[in-house]
TrEMBL record:
Entry GO terms, CC: cytosol
Organism: Thermus oshimai JL-2
Location of the Nucleoside phosphorylase domain: 16-210
Catalytic activity, EC: 2.4.2.3
Pfam families: PNP_UDP_1
GO molecular function, one term: uridine phosphorylase activity
Protein name: Uridine phosphorylase
Biological processes per GO annotation: nucleoside metabolic process
Length: 235
């Protein structure tokens, strides 16, 4: 079946793809970091762009919010030729050691979402990123000296359902932060034999009444994208 959501054709999408949730963030990444970026998709707000980073073809594709949307986009990108899928998003901190704007490199994701569960037909599973991509992200964050944390995250469906008490409970098991897409991307990476990874920027602590100041979040996102692009060149 040809893609019906990411309405692109073969050759539009590079093998290496960054996956922000927000279409406007996809546009910003493309215009800020990529040379000769061309938009190839707009349908349903799933904006996609392809350009070059240091001479290497790279695409940036918005996924929308949540694992179901991210799974659709990932499946269709793979049919279009994508072979490295790297989520660049934001997260809510569960661990008190995380500060606003810090980077989080996911070593694994607790699959609290329904999309991962449906793919697995209820089987227990521990979704992990591609080891080479994970190692490249960690190495680049260290090389640049950006504040970062490496470990377990949780992927959830209901943004407003998680409570500070629930987040603290998961933090006792090593969960650093909550987000909404990584689990199913890691699973699809294994199922479809492509590389998948996730790097995040802390946008708030679970229970905070508002996000961090825009300038703090913006700098964290800029650092995250720098690390992600450099990591893509290594895989």
């Amino acid at each position: 079946m040809s893609p019906i959501h990411v309405r692109a054709k073969e050759g539009d999408v590079a093998e290496r793809v960054l996956l922000p949730g927000d279409p406007y963030r996809a546009e910003w990444i493309a215009k800020t970091f990529l040379e000769g970026a061309v938009q190839y998709a707009t349908h349903r707000g799933l904006w996609g762009y392809t350009g070059r980073y240091k001479g290497v073809p790279v695409s940036v594709q918005a996924t929308g919010m949540g694992a179901p949307s991210a799974a659709i986009v990932a499946e269709e990108l793979i049919t279009l030729g994508a072979r490295v899928l790297l989520r660049v998003g934001t997260c809510g901190a569960a661990d008190e050691a995380l500060a606003p704007g810090d980077l989080v490199i996911a070593q694994g994701a607790v699959p609290l979402d329904g999309a991962t569960r449906q793919y697995l037909e209820g089987l227990p599973y521990a979704p992990l990123p591609d080891p080479l991509l994970f190692r490249a992200l960690w190495a680049q964050a260290e090389a640049k000296g950006y504040p970062h944390h490496v470990g377990l995250i949780a992927t959830e469906d209901a943004f407003y359902a998680t409570t500070p008490e629930g987040a603290r409970r998961w933090a006792r098991y090593g969960v650093l932060a909550f987000e909404m897409e990584a689990s199913v991307l890691f699973l699809l990476g294994r199922m479809r034999k492509v590389k998948a990874g996730t790097i995040l920027t802390v946008s708030n602590r679970i229970g905070d009444p508002e996000l961090v100041p825009p300038e703090v979040l913006g700098e964290g996102v800029r650092r995250m994208v720098e690390v992600a692009l450099e990591a893509l060149l290594q895989v």
